[in-house]
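dumping this here before i forget
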Amino acid sequence: MAHDVAALAAELTDMAAADHRTAVHANSDDPAEQLAWRRLTARHGDRLGEIMAEYGWPTAEMVGEEAARAAWLIAQHADRQLDIQRRALQLMRQAVSAGAAGPRELAFLRDRTLVNEGRQQVYGTQIAGVKDGAPVPWPCEEPERVDELRAAVGIEPFDEYVARFS
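structure:
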């Protein structure tokens, strides 16, 4: 089991490294680059689905901090695999309740999943685009409470967050 977990941790961190290397192609003007990105994230999403079926949510306690963050990143980017995102969200929620995962990452995954379902997000973490040089979030359920909700899960205020994108 220890060997399996070590191999799993290495696999997750390798997938995240590949994700980081190719993420620049997600919104490329070149359709071939976009397609390569979609294929990679779909492959990773499929594999995360298998991992969740076998191990549950890969927590830091199980696979280490870096690999746990990698699993979260893979779930975040499984945008065309809502079943995978929903399952990750469910398992991550349980892990957060048990103190085995962070509420900040859960908030990002929740928003990402809601947006992918065509619903309003809660924490304002997902950006729809840029208008007049300023990032515009996807619609939020309670826009007037976004900073309060963000603070509750350890996310900086919205204005500080979007300043990084400008």
